[in-house]
Amino acid sequence: MASWQWFHRLGSPKWLSGTIDRWLPWVLGLGSVLLLVSAIWGLAFTPPDYKQGNSFRIIYIHVPTAIVALAAYYVMAIAGAVSIIWRMKVADMALRAIAPVGAALTFLALVTGAIWGKPTWGAYWIWQDARLTSMLLLFFLYLGIMALHDAYQNSASGNRAAAIMSLVGTVNIPIIYKSVDWWSSLHQPATLKFTEESTIATEMLQPLMLAIPGAYLFFIAAVMMQLRVQIARNEKNTRWMAERAAQ
Amino acid sequence: MSTEASNNSTLAPHSEVEPSLVLDSVSCERGERLLVADLSLHLVAGQGVRIEGPNGSGKTTLLRVLAGLSQQYSGTVHWCGKDIRQSRSSLAEDTLYIGHLAGVKALLSPLENLSWWASLHISSGDAVSKAKLLAALSQVGLERFANTPCHQLSAGQQRRIALARLYLSEHRLWILDEPFTAIDATGVELLEHRIAEHLKKGNMAIVTTHQAMQIDGFTRCPLTSASSEEEAS
Amino acid sequence: MSSNKPQAEAALFVAFNALLIRDLHVYFRSRGTWLNPLVFVLMVITLFTLGIGPDPSALSNHASGIIWVVALLGIMLSLDALFRADFDDGSLEQLLLSPQPLYLAVLAKVLAHWFITGLPIVLASPLYSLMLGIPADVIPVLALGLLVGSGILSFIGAIGASLTVSLRSGGLLIALLTLPLYVPAIIFGSQFVQSAIEGWPLMPTFSMLLGLLIGAIVLAPIAIIGGLRLSQDT
Fold this sequence. Notes:
The complex is a heterotrimer of chains A (about 250), B (about 230) and C (about 230).
Chain A: H1 2-45, H2 59-86, H3 89-121, H4 130-151, H5 155-187, H6 202-234, H7 239-246
Helix pairs in contact in A: 1-6, 2-3, 2-5, 2-6, 3-4, 3-5, 3-6, 4-5
Chain B: H1 2-6, E1 20-30, E2 33-44, E3 48-52, H2 59-67, E4 74-79, E5 82-83, H3 88-94, E6 95-98, H4 110-121, H5 130-139, H6 155-164, E7 173-177, H7 185-200, E8 204-208, E9 218-222, H8 225-232
Parallel strand pairs in B: 3-8, 3-9, 6-7, 7-8
Antiparallel strand pairs in B: 1-2, 1-4, 4-5
Chain C: H1 5-29, H2 32-52, H3 56-78, H4 81-89, H5 91-96, H6 102-123, H7 125-132, H8 139-164, H9 171-178, H10 183-198, H11 203-230
Helix pairs in contact in C: 1-6, 2-3, 2-6, 3-6, 3-8, 3-10, 6-8, 6-11, 8-9, 8-10, 8-11, 10-11
């Protein structure tokens, strides 16, 4: 146990830093290409929707960001679990790195959802859409974790508090989602159904299939960049960091 | 008091394992500051340690680590051969910790406070009898105030409620952080006597104090801020 | 100690009792603890009424939502004090160092706190019903829903309280942490009352509330223990 802790404490951040340096250009490059191609394809070469016209095209941003925003929370919670169980410094850094990126993605998904809502439903925000409401709550969960990080002066305690909170959130997200879903179905007029993905045409779906992995890669790249900041902040007193800075 | 307690069943399981406290290169960091640097220590039955050092040298932090309160440290601490990170309960069963905070509720009386503590820490199966609690309170000179709400007592008297635990305790390890603060001279003498008695029974004590202390069997463990600065740079 | 099982169980019972009774003693001796949340709830309901307007039908339409949100806020705000006094005077240290299972200790503390804040809010439900024009036959349903719901709110809120106990400015942060987690409770809780008003079947929502309560009692203490432990590293 002792030797492992030693390994985690000193070995991992250095190794991770090198790995990030090697992989970041590729991940960022491939992600950008995928997003760019899917955007051009989706905006210029996909036929307009017979009901929604051109406004549906925002799904090429909205859907990938929403999917990745939710996945990011689970990744963050896994980092939290690793931090609690194995006391890995890198997991704490990952938690700190993912939270703002996830919050930003959630915010983007909310904004694009609202913009899409205006031409489709005639209002920027309608509460009947369970998915959008759940997204809003996810955004609050992210903000809570970021606030916990900021509130603790002792960063180790802040990390632990955020890790616990992320796990609590993980248990609750499915319950929140289900209850909001149930709630909105209860208040929803029967004529209004929001099942855009299932009725979508294959031609419209193809660019989306590029945009989703693109968004994942973009998320990974953003987390890598955040991680680099976290490592620099945490390891600034170590020898390897000083050597790196001297180079 | 002590004979009454030794009849108690709490003594029986204690004799199974020879008590020992082993610290292996324990370091504590708080923010940017390294408080305790690479401390190794081996404590055996009947031995007491006085942790010494100026303010801010990490005495309290170290004591909180040893009590199992603080978890932010590197290195290992073994109690009776078990890592305290892994087996919290065996350390908790054997340890009495009195820190800077008395752990006394101002709205309750000394008797109520002590009774609460005893039911959490003296796990004999029955609630500790009122007579025993009163006897412990009289040892620290509080028998007259046993039923007075604590907010009417002085700081020194509130401190004595915490110290009354020493007269109920059969724990093998006492961790006392500045136990003599706000205690008068006769009180200090009585406490020293009680700690010496505790060590004679083959138990251990870890104490910090700024006052002089005359107890046999105590070794000194200096925590100098100079050495920690050296390590940090 | 562990070799002697009945004795260990008895010790457990003694410790649980001591915690519960001590906390109740402390709460009873400081009137504010139980009175303030109740007064808060009544005042906010009054403010809601003044905001919405005196129209009885508008009020009773929104009554279930109002009552649940206000009860939620009252319980949440009172939870800031759940561990803070113990943290400040050092009792929390002694609690965490006890060889008894912390799970039971946390259970006892939250239970005592619920008894003194949640229960009065439940018992005052006829009063809210009068204020907001809820029909008399719905009052028992409202009270039952609040009885189960206030338990959920207490246990989930205690997570937020434990994670912020060592911070000087805990109050607003507790809200930020726990309000999103309160969503299922408020949805099913107010729907339970609404169902009674509309004459819909009650069992589906009530079983959901019960499920949430059981989940909260089983899982929340684990997170609370983690929060209390980390509060000792400042």
